[in-house]
Specification:
CATH architecture of the largest domain: 2-Layer Sandwich
Number of helices: 11
Oligomer: single chain
Radius of gyration: 18 Å
Shape: globular
Strand content: 5-15%
Largest sheet: 5 strands, antiparallel
Strand order of the largest sheet: 2-1-5-4-3
Helix content: 40-55%
CATH class of the largest domain: Alpha Beta
């Protein structure tokens, strides 16, 4: 994980309001070439009465947002549909839409480029434990083609992980949502497995490093996810980082 994102994680952890978290996130992502950030989620089942149906934080140009809404692009936005049903990040932009054969989405992306200069980006689904808030965190650049491919190779994994951490922190400091629960208690082995996972190792490589069976690594990580209330590895890592259970 690059230094700008590590620094941003520390500042996000110290922020005490959703606005402060968002400001730190926008600045941190800008340091790695993200031109616009867009974060939206639906409230959890246990949200207090009167909680808005959805919360949206965005740095997208107002001109594009107005065009997006007036053109009915919400219905054809494949990144929104992806975040509602998937857990893996989705590359977004006209070239990816055309590769998928999605003409409507490709038209939307082409207009995003024409209206606001938006290139390619990454849509990160936010899918925590059942009954909690869910949504997406979209990171958009001005890059296309080989330049964006290089950006993905350098930043996709760490940027997706940090997006989860930022979204988790926003939930923690939003008054309308439930208060932060006690820090989960992970075993030393569970924490070690998560630490190696955060370093980019696959389960088989983690097993080699720790001198244990691959199946045992799988079990430790499954237990860690359950204790952290995470649906995916990325969410488990983000929560472990936010709780200070592992070092970034």
């Amino acid at each position: 994980m690059g230094l700008p994102l590590l620094d941003m994680l520390e500042r996000v952890g110290a922020a005490r309001s959703a606005g402060a978290v968002w400001s730190e996130a926008v600045a941190g992502f800008a340091a790695i070439g993200v031109a616009w950030c867009h974060h939206a989620y639906a409230p959890p089942a246990w949200a207090a009465p009167g909680t808005p149906a959805r919360l949206r934080l965005t740095t997208l140009p107002p001109s594009w947002m107005a065009h997006y809404e007036a053109s009915g692009f919400l219905r054809m936005d494949a990144s929104r549909r992806h975040c509602a049903r998937a857990v893996t990040p989705l590359p977004v932009g006209e070239e990816f839409a055309r590769a998928l054969g999605d003409a409507d989405w490709a038209r939307m992306c082409a207009e995003a480029a024409a209206v606001a200069g938006i290139g390619c980006g990454l849509a990160v689904p936010l899918r925590p434990a059942p009954g909690t808030a869910h949504g997406g965190f979209t990171l958009l650049t001005r890059l296309r083609g080989p330049a964006f491919a290089a950006w993905r190779r350098a930043h996709e994994r760490s940027a997706a992980l940090v997006a989860h951490a930022v979204a988790q922190r926003i939930l923690e400091v939003t008054e309308a949502l439930a208060p932060v629960t006690a820090v989960p208690r992970l075993s030393p082995r569970e924490r070690e497995c998560l630490s190696w996972l955060a370093a980019g190792l696959r389960n088989d490589r983690i097993a080699e490093r720790m001198g244990i069976a691959r199946a045992t690594v799988d079990l430790h990580l499954a237990r860690a996810r359950r204790k952290l209330g995470a649906a995916t590895r990325e969410q488990a890592l983000a929560k472990a980082l936010s709780f200070g259970l592992i070092e970034p």
